[in-house]
Recover the amino acids of this structure.
């Protein structure tokens, strides 16, 4: 099974949409790998520069309604080919969240106060996260300290992650 | 306990209920276009599973970039075309017969009350106008739909929006849905189905109901849905008349998918439109909505009339009524894209195409093109477009461009003045 560990990219805005994650003009690509240079190309945030901040990251922590807009699975794929397979947010748009689990990736919701605290107290430049899928706990390390944050994942979502995605799961069962 | 429309549909289509909270439902139709389907086709081939669950239930169209604009889009079209031929998918629409998916599929009678439909396109929620459950999905869900004819959803809670009051003159379904999104926000119906009800919806034709349901996803909704009634039946009658002995019999069948009076809703919202003015967006979120009156000084570079939201015959009629004997402002580029060949033909016969061309509009073939900045009207950095489409995201119609969403009448009036303008059809 995939690991969901590594350095964290913080995206400090609500309602980041799929056009910002991967603009429609790149939807003419027929391979996932071709999307790699364009991840978050149209996202304009004071604290974020795509060419500086994406490399080396494995996890995204962000605000509410992440991935709203289009149904394009190119959005999770663009994260995947950049080595990011876990997004943690206050909430997700339905299709984006489902697409993540359908690809065997994870989209995990945490309460607003926990997300707020992560943004305000953690050193956003140098944060590492480790996922313990047996105990349902994220271990977040920053500022020389490690904190454990519990999370919830439904049985179905866990089954998709374990199966490696919905195609394999559905093909076995239906 | 009473059930909502979508609960009735799920109950009649459920094939599995894994872990108690997931509903795997049987699909009555899987719709496909050339942007999100080719990667699913390639993946099925790579897995050695290049099969379709039922070729008669799969409908496919090339609509986003058509005719192809470059080699990459030509390849996307070719993958879909070859696949449709290989699997004998009869309902495949290519150049000369193709149109915007959410306009052409209803027009062909492919959506019925009680149906379950998925497509790799977020605006699939449009088809809920027929009392169907229709949801946008990603490529993986689409792939499983193609292969197995099923899709998984969490329990569909429903928000009922009761639209009350009489729609003022010159105000349209587009203004209603913009005002609703402005009220509940882009996250206001996430993981919910919106049931649109009330006298205003009952008195709408199917085109207006499709406009209403089309933008449900901009509030985060899985699907917008309207109760099937005689308007639904009259629209579909030419397609279903051989299946029923009478309209009464068909209506009895469709009525299975009316909500129970004691259905349980997550929330009920009354939305009065009696004094609604024409609406327009500002900013980069569909919830950033104001009255046109508040935005009237905004200068525009381009006007776009078309899309799955507002490219149907009534939309062209409203715009043509404003543009009759008028010229568009010399600083404005006008583009109109009738959403399907049938709509294009009807617009020709009714004289709308001549009105558009005399006014100075460019009339394109049916395509999604400009709405998502893929072709046929991409904006340059800093340009502003008055558009009848559904998304005003940053960069949506071209990097650095600004999109103001509005009704076709407002877009037409804005084309004439060169500024965002209320149409002369509006008498506030």
């Amino acid at each position: 099974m995939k690991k969901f560990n590594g350095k964290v990219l913080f995206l400090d805005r609500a309602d980041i949409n799929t056009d910002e994650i991967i603009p429609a003009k790149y939807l003419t690509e027929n391979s996932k790998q071709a999307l790699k240079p364009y991840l978050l190309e149209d996202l304009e945030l004071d604290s974020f520069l795509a060419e500086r901040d994406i490399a080396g990251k494995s996890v995204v922590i962000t605000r509410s309604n992440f991935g709203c807009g289009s149904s394009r699975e190119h959005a999770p794929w663009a994260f995947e080919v950049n080595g990011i397979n876990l997004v943690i947010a206050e909430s997700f748009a339905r299709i984006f969240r489902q697409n993540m689990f359908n690809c065997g990736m994870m989209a995990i919701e945490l309460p607003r106060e926990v997300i707020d605290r992560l943004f305000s107290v953690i050193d956003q430049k140098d944060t590492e996260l480790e996922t313990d899928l047996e105990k349902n706990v994220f271990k977040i390390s920053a500022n020389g300290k490690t904190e454990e944050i519990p999370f919830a994942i439904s049985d179905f979502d866990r089954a998709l992650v374990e199966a490696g995605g919905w195609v394999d799961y559905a093909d076995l069962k239906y | 306990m009473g059930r909502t429309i979508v609960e009735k549909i799920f109950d009649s289509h459920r094939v599995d209920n894994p872990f108690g909270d997931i509903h795997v439902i049987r699909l009555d139709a899987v719709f496909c276009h050339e942007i999100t389907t080719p990667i699913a086709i390639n993946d099925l081939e790579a897995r050695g599973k290049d099969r379709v669950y039922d070729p008669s239930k799969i409908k496919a169209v090339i609509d986003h970039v058509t005719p192809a604009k470059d080699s990459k889009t030509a390849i996307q079209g070719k993958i879909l075309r070859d696949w449709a031929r290989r699997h004998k998918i009869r309902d495949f629409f290519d150049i000369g017969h193709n149109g915007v998916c959410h306009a052409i599929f209803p027009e062909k009678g492919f959506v019925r009350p009680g149906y379950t439909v998925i497509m790799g396109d977020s605006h699939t929620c449009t088809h809920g106008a027929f009392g169907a459950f229709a949801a946008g999905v990603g490529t993986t869900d689409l792939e499983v739909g193609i292969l197995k004819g099923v899709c998984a959803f969490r329990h569909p809670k429903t928000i009922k929006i009761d639209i009350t009051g009489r729609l003022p003159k010159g105000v349209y379904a587009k203004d209603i849905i913009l005002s609703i999104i402005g009220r509940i926000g882009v996250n206001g119906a996430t993981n919910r189905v919106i049931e649109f009800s009330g006298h205003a919806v009952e008195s709408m034709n199917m085109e207006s109901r499709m406009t209403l349901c089309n933008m449900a996803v901009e509030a985060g909704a899985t699907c917008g849905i309207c109760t099937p009634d005689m308007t639904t039946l009259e629209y579909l009658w030419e397609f279903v008349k051989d299946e029923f002995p009478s309209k009464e019999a068909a209506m009895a069948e469709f009525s299975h998918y009316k909500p129970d009076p004691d259905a349980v809703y997550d929330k009920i919202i009354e939305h009065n439109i009696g004094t609604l003015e024409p609406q327009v967006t500002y900013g980069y979120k569909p919830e950033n909505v104001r009255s046109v009156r508040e935005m009237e000084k905004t200068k525009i570079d381009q006007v776009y009339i078309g899309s799955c939201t507002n490219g149907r015959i009534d939309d062209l009629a409203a715009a043509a009524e404003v543009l009759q004997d008028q010229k568009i402002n010399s600083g404005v580029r006008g583009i109109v894209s009738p959403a399907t060949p049938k709509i294009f033909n009807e617009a020709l016969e009714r004289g709308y195409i001549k009105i558009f061309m005399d006014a100075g509009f460019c009339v394109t073939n049916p395509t999604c093109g400009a709405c998502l900045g893929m072709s046929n009207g991409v904006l340059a950095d800093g340009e502003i477009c008055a558009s009848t489409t559904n998304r005003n995201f940053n960069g949506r119609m071209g990097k650095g461009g600004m999109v103001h969403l509005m009704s076709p009448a407002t877009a037409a009036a804005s084309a004439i003045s060169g500024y965002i303008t209320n149409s002369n059809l509006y008498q506030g």
